Amino acid sequence: MTCRPEYVKECKCPDEVMNCIRETLGESLLDIELRERWDGCPRRVLYRDIWVRFERGAYLSLVDRLRTIDFLHFHVMSGNDDGDVVTLNVHCSLFREAGEGHRIGITLSVPIPKNDLSIASLGSRIPGTEFSEREMREMLGIHFEGLVNTNLVFLPEDWDEEIKPWRRDETGPSPENIRELS
Amino acid sequence: MARERNPIQVIYLAERICGICSFSHIVAFVRAVEDAAKIEVPIRAQYIRSLVLELERIHSHILWAGVACYTFGYDSAFNLGMLLREKVMDVLEALTGNRVNYGVGTVGGVRRDLTPKAAAVVREMIAFYRREFETFLDVVTEDPIAKARMRNVGVLSPEDAVTYCALGPTARGSGLRVDLRHTSPYEAYGDLGVKPVVPQDYTGEVYGDVYDRFLVRVMEVIQSLDLLEKIVDGIPEGPITWEPKLPKVLASLKAADGTGWGIIEAPRGDDTHIVKLTKGEDNLTWWKVRAPTYSNAVSWPLMFMNQEIADAPLIINSIDPCISCMERILVSDEKIGRSEIVTKAQMMEKCREKTRRLMGA
After folding, report:
1. Cα–Cα dist A26/A108, whole Å
2. Burial letters for B30-59: b for 16+ Cβ neighbours within 10 Å, e otherwise?
3. Does residue A28 carry a pLDDT above 50?
């Protein structure tokens, strides 16, 4: 599937998007939540985020499904070492150009087991993900299948790549790797 | 650093991520914390946050425009930009006590109220810029040399701006009507009727070049003046914090458990902070910051294609990058297999020399 270089003008409401996510994920869905912010005077909801947590196997199918609704605008990836798994959060949005109050933020949260720390790259679908995937690779050790450029982004060129700065296990930095600032 | 600090302490780290858009980082950070802890901010505090955000946008855009002019050797416009920028910095100092790192934001609200005296200072500033900024607009949009240096330079097509996830004035300069103040209004922006500034609304066409990005920022200064006027006229009465007692705030944050996402339209594009709070923990579990340059820099290779080295500083500058220590580039010529380090000073000289060439000097 190629990128759609335009946004749809008719957007869906959060419930429709959530139903679409539920249908696509089926039993892979672990959790889904709609968050609404009440802002302004008088108070009203113009800011919405959907948080969805699901199993890794459905990652590409969900991204592809969402991209049929609108170009999935990518903001950034975040992640954490959560013990047996590394959680990858992909922060995106739909309807970024669809008019006042219509954007919906979406966080795709995927637990990846440490004994097989890999997931598909989104680079061919969303070129803007490259820096984030390289960052998650060097900081957490996630292998992105299909990521072409694996050069370091933030760490120095002579960095020992066995050390993953954001990990909290034996692959994380040891005290001698850390220089305390005053 | 942040893992050893509670969310209130981390505010002061967030504020120091950038010297220009320090308040943008604070607002994105505290909104992420408020999202994780389910904290609602009083309306008056939302208006004050929007007020400082717009002052910061004016500061950032005028500074950027001045530096852009300096880059291609238009020193008189640079000096004018620096002169005009002083006014908004004086206003920020009058409001907050500081010219940078204002110390205004906190979880659940703000730490400084807008007094009638401060509101009068803002009104006076609005009148000043409406009178004086037009001159700057004319200088940089009517001058044929300035236009020759910026038109058709560093082009980013609308399609590439979408797929490479460009943000803020970089995306709007390519004609995309994207602005979080419009499509995801936060704080007081839902009451202010913000419309994305795009070049086609002013010139009737989109080039997606350095000139269009320049135009967007200059017109956004004028837009910010209108927004500030609406804020000062419409700010409601009421408290400025969700909870004024700091120990109670910290206790609520310690009881919270969840991940929060804060995203706002900073001067350079959307600024994203994500925060994880764990119940029973005083300190943040983790914190992710993504400043707009991180996303906009992905589009640089597209903008550089088929351009002169002399235009590189202008193209780099056109996304308003926040890279404090960049002082050289590696230029590779694949055809002859040669690479060469070009220093910042060499690049700037090439850029300014091209302007002199165009002027026939």
Report:
1. 15
2. bbbbbbbbebebbbbbbbbbbbbbbbbbbb
3. yes
How many angstroms separate the Cα of B7 from the Cα of each of B36, B64, B128, B252?
11, 31, 38, 11
Hey, is the C-beta of B263 within 8 angstroms of any chain A C-beta? Answer: yes
Q: Which amino acid is at A38?
A: W
Helix (H, G, I), strand (E, B) or coil at A154: coil
Q: Which of B35, B190, B276 is facing A40, going by the closest CB pair? A: B190
List, in sequence order, the alpha helices (H) in chain B: 7-14, 22-37, 43-71, 75-96, 116-142, 144-150, 158-163, 168-173, 180-183, 200-203, 210-234, 246-255, 292-296, 300-304, 312-318, 344-358
Contact across the interface for B190 and A78, Cβ inside 8 Å = no
* CB within 8 Å: A127 and B295: no
Contacts of A36 in chain B (CB under 8 A): none
Q: A130, B298: Cβ pair inside 8 Å?
A: yes
pLDDT for A5 beyond 50: no
Predicted TM-score (pTM) of this structure: 0.93
Q: What's the CATH superfamily of A14-171?
A: NADH:ubiquinone oxidoreductase Nqo5 subunit (3.30.460.80)
Would you state the pLDDT for residue B323? Answer: 65
Domain boundaries, chain A: 14-171
The residue written with tokens 């607009």 in the block is: B137
Picking from B158, B182, B298, the nearest residue to A128 by CB comes out as B298
The predicted-structure confidence for A66-113, as pLDDT tens digits, reads as follows 998 999 999 999 999 999 999 999 999 999 988 899 999 999 999 999
Of B2, B12, B274, B249, residue with least CA distance to B107: B249
Whether residue A126 contacts residue B166, with contact meaning beta carbons closer than 8 Å, is answered with no
Tell me the mean pLDDT in the region B39-46: 96
Among the listed residues B99, B96, B105, B100, the one whose alpha carbon sits nearest the alpha carbon of residue B34: B105
* Ordered structural domains, chain B, with CATH: 2-234 (1.10.645.10)
Q: What is the Cα–Cα distance from A173 to A163, expressed in whole angstroms? A: 6
Tokens of B78: 């640079």
Please give the average per-residue pLDDT across B274-289, as a whole number. 96
What residues in B contact A127, CB-CB < 8 Å? 163-165, 298
pLDDT computed for residue B334 by the predictor: 79
pLDDT at A72: 93
Of the candidates B185, B286, B297, which has its C-beta nearest A100's C-beta? B185
Rounded distance, CA B247 to CA B31, Å?
19
